Description:
- By secondary structure, this protein is of the alpha+beta class.
- The chain has 2 domains: about 1-210, no CATH class; about 210-310, Immunoglobulin-like, CATH 2.60.40.
- It contains 13 helices and 7 strands.
- It has helices at about 5-20, 25, 30-40, 40-55, 60-90, 90-95, 100-105, 110-125, 130, 140-155, 155-190, 200-210, 250-255, and strands at about 220-225, 240-245, 260-265, 270-275, 275-285, 290-295, 300-310.
- Strands 3-2-5-6 form a 4-stranded antiparallel β-sheet. The chain has a 3-stranded mixed β-sheet with strand order 4-1-7.
- The radius of gyration is 29 Å and the shape is elongated.
- The two termini are about 35 Å apart.
Amino acid sequence: MTSNQEDKLSMYYVVKNTCEKYQATWTTNAVFAATYNLWAEKIPLIEANRDIQALGISGVTISKSEKREIMIVNTLFVEKRVQSYANVENNSELLESIKYTASDLKKARDNDVVAMCNIVYTKARANAPAIETYGVTEDIFAKLQNSIAEYSASLPQPKAARSQAKTATENLSKYFKEADNLLAKRLDLDIELFKTTKPEFYSQFKTARIVIATGGFATSVIGCITNTTTGQPMKGATITFVATNGGTTKAAATAPTKPVVKRSANKGKFRASLHENTYRVTVEKIGFKKQELTISVARGESTDLNIGLEKE
Length: 312
């Protein structure tokens, strides 16, 4: 997401928390309730596309590279066993047909390296009974065949991931626009219903609607939320940053006091753009004990914040 979208999503979370706090006030008002529910439905759509966009293609590319390496290692083992057999039998034709070096396989293009590995497998399979004593068992054949199949299946994945990320970026623009329109053209108007009957709700809603632009003055807090029992990453935890404004720097003194709210994405990860300051951090998820701590962030530096939650 862009920094502007991150700032808006943080604002959405505060608006949502405020409305949930005062749900008893507006739930019987059909006009406000219908608009709020329609707007709130946009948040999980934004989160889902944010997660897809954040994944990018790096993980897919790494997986593809790892599968290629495994396939090459398996191929070279079988190839050398066949070459040993060919040398003993003075079978120059067989020997010349599979003289691929590690460099040949590593430098070959995707489809070419698959073809080379398949040739080695086919030649070895044709001499299966004879090369069994050279260490090429049925398990080895299966291992090579499976690694070729897994690498072949991974070839279209980076392109698919790029396509998914592009679609997610387009969807984010669409859903943010729809959410903003619902806020500006309906909720910001409907909140007037409560200006006199529930002034505290009205006031907190107006405050929540302020977007804090963290842009060029921000530093990053990057972290991961995990389950302390299983060690598994946790999606959907709420991380709230509240500036203490107790710093001594000019940036800390002028930093906004409006909370910054984030939610952990796939694999438990989150990123927050914050002004230089000291922050009280609260991490919450239904069914788990709330975690509270204090951190300090410095301008221009990235702060790591990894937190484990215990079941209640």
